[in-house]
Design goal:
2 domains; alpha/beta; single chain; 13 helices; Rossmann fold; globular
Length: 377
């Protein structure tokens, strides 16, 4: 075998019943982006919710990822529900747009409104789960003096804005996030709860109905989601090999649905050609992708947000890794088989050329892993 294949089972889920804390009433989470990173923060925030069930929890996030916390069209503050299951309020920023017109009146007005809303909540503490300069500065601008952050964050100057620096534990980023929030909980409890890896994401009945209707109309049956895209070129397994896997899946009665986003039409067309027409498109919003993924038998893809969404929803995953380390960024909390060549060196540089080690992973190996997971109970 040209690639190292590792099988991960879902961690044991253990929860302790804790009495509500009286010392903390309002918490703000800062995790702005991106999709996979927000999903990796969900178990830690779920742990905070379990420890402080009566606390008011807000989350500051980039607008484009808000659907991971709240279904579209649903109020972003107020009583929690299936549409906004985890947090009491979603605060959004649009930093990319704001930077383009930083001193324009509309941008200044929007930014002022956001910070008025955040500061008006008078949060008792902020937890920065991003560890970047921008997230640390925004945490400080909340007006809250108690700011928790990693002692060794992704961008070291971020610590200048933390009042409480936490030495995080664990290799996987989910475990590091959990260890950070355990420091918050530990100030109020002597007996810390164990890991909680089950998470809740919004459930939108309209999106569920749309996806169900589309699948029924196309007589899709059982299906797997293939995700050929990735954040940068070095993480992308060749589209033609996804096409080969799609063709093989269709031969065993599993419909291959290809998830792709804006600007990836050519990528889908490459998969379609290699699949000899068996691959089917699946362009969705985030809310629709959640609904679609809940119904999937299997997910196949690289180190991307949709892969981590599938893992969070307990969908079996075949993960194809190149330059990023699956021990830190791999699928977490679900049955999975992870491929990574011994030739791949860990780097998070956004190189455009495909990783050489990634190219050594064959479609036959990936399909064998898919069959193994599909046949498991």
């Amino acid at each position: 075998m040209s690639a190292v294949s590792t099988k991960f089972e879902s961690p044991v889920l253990v929860q302790h019943s804790l009495a509500p804390a009286k010392n903390i009433e309002r918490l703000l989470i800062v995790r702005l982006s991106a999709m996979g990173d927000v999903i990796h923060a969900l178990p830690a925030v779920s742990l905070l919710r379990a420890a402080f069930p009566q606390a008011y929890i807000g989350w500051l996030i980039e607008e484009r990822w808000a659907e991971l916390l709240c279904a579209p069209g649903y109020p972003r503050r107020g009583p929690r529900s299936a549409q906004r299951p985890l947090v009491d309020q979603v605060h959004t920023v649009d930093l990319k747009t704001w930077r383009r017109s930083l001193f324009s009146l509309p941008v200044l007005q929007k930014a002022a409104t956001v910070w008025h809303d955040v500061r008006a909540m008078r949060y008792d503490a902020v937890v920065d789960l991003q560890g970047a300069m921008r997230s640390a500065v925004l945490a400080r601008l909340s007006g809250t003096r108690v700011i928790y952050g990693a002692a060794e964050p992704r961008e070291s100057p971020a610590t200048l804005w933390y009042s409480r620096k936490v030495t995080t534990q664990g290799r996987h980023v989910v475990e590091q996030n959990i260890s950070l929030v355990q420091a918050v909980i530990g100030r109020y409890y002597h007996d810390l709860p164990l890991l909680i890896t089950n998470v809740e994401v919004p459930r939108d009945s309209e999106a569920d109905a749309r996806i169900g209707q589309q699948l029924a109309q196309k007589e899709t049956g059982e299906f797997a989601i293939l995700n050929p895209g990735a954040g940068w070129g070095a993480k992308r397994w060749p589209a033609e090999r996804y096409g080969e896997v799609a063709r093989a899946l269709s031969e065993i009665g599993i419909s291959p649905l290809v998830n792709y986003g804006p600007g990836e039409d050519e990528l889908f067309e490459s998969v379609l050609r290699a699949s000899e027409g068996t691959a089917k498109p699946a362009r969705t919003s985030i809310t629709e992708l959640i609904a679609l993924t809940r119904r999937a038998r299997l997910f196949i893809g690289g180190d991307t947000g949709p892969l981590h969404l599938a893992a969070a929803l307990k969908i079996p995953v075949v993960a194809i890794f190149g330059p990023t380390d699956p021990a830190r960024n791999g699928p977490y909390g679900t049955r999975s088989i992870v491929f990574r060549s011994q030739e791949s060196l860990t780097t998070y540089a956004r190189n455009s050329e495909a990783d050489e080690g990634l190219l050594s992973i064959s479609a036959e190996e990936v399909m064998a892993a898919a069959r193994q997971l599909l046949s498991s109970p």
